[in-house]
Design brief:
203 residues, single chain, Rossmann fold, 9 strands, five-stranded mixed sheet, alpha/beta
C-alpha cells in the first residue's frame, strides 16, 4: 500500500485490487485516512479492475504472485507487470531468502504471464518509509527485466516517486540476487533499528 500512496501523492491515479471489492476499499480507506489533507486519487476494486491499468504492480505476498497473475493473464496480456515481491522466511530472529523454482519471483511471474512484460523493482525500498508521506525518499531502485518495454515503463514508474532513482541492473536472471539481498537489508535494519535502503555511489 505504501507504493500506492507514493504514486498517488505524485499525481497518479491508482487502483488497488483485491479478490473482493469491499476488502480493497477497506484497505484503501484505512491507508488514506492518515492523509486526509492530501488529494490522493486511490480507489479499491476487484483485481480485474486493477489489471485494466496501463501498468500493473504485483504487490501480493510472494507465494501468491504466480497464482494471482495466472488468474489475470488475459487482462494483463501486452502490459508491463512490475514484480516487487521477495521470497523470504523468518528463522528465529533472522530473515533468510528462499529460492523459487525458476530462481526468483519475477522469473516465475514472467513464466506464468507469457504475453506480458515483467519487470522487477522496489524490493529494497522499506515499506514503512513508502507509507510515510511526510518522509522524503532518497534511495536507488534496482530494475531487472528481459524486454525493452518492461525496462522503460518500470523505470518511468520508479521515477514518478520523488527521491527514487531507477537503476538498470540487468535481465530477470539477476532478479533472484536482488530479491535475496532483501533478507540482508532486513536483518541490518532489525539489528540496528533502522530503515536503511540502497544508495549506489559512483553512478
Amino acid at each position: 500500500m505504501g507504493l500506492a500512496l507514493r504514486l498517488a501523492a505524485a499525481g497518479a491515479d491508482v487502483t488497488v485490487g483485491s479478490r473482493t471489492a469491499e476488502r480493497a476499499r477497506d484497505k484503501v480507506d484505512e491507508a488514506v485516512a492518515r492523509w486526509a489533507d492530501r488529494a490522493l486519487r486511490i480507489v479499491g476494486d476487484l483485481n480485474e479492475k486493477a489489471a485494466a491499468a496501463d501498468i500493473v504492480v504485483m504487490a501480493t505476498p510472494w507465494d501468491a504472485a504466480v497464482v494471482t497473475g495466472r488468474g489475470l493473464a488475459a487482462p494483463l496480456a501486452g502490459k508491463v507487470v512490475v514484480s516487487m515481491a521477495n521470497a523470504l522466511q523468518r528463522v528465529g530472529d533472522e530473515f533468510q531468502p528462499l529460492i523459487p523454482a525458476r530462481g526468483s519471483v519475477a522469473e516465475s511471474l514472467q513464466a506464468a504471464l507469457v504475453d506480458s512484460h515483467v519487470g522487477a523493482a522496489f524490493q529494497h525500498v522499506p515499506a514503512r518509509l513508502l507509507a510515510d508521506l511526510d518522509h522524503d525518499m532518497d534511495c536507488d531502485v534496482l530494475v531487472c527485466a528481459d524486454r525493452p518495454e518492461a525496462f522503460e515503463q518500470t523505470e518511468r514508474l520508479v521515477a514518478l516517486v520523488p527521491g527514487l532513482r531507477p537503476v538498470v541492473a540487468g535481465t530477470l536472471s539477476l532478479a533472484g540476487a536482488v530479491e535475496a539481498f532483501t533478507a540482508v537489508l532486513l536483518n541490518v535494519n532489525v539489528r540496528h533499528k533502522a530503515r536503511a535502503s540502497i544508495k549506489l555511489t559512483g553512478l
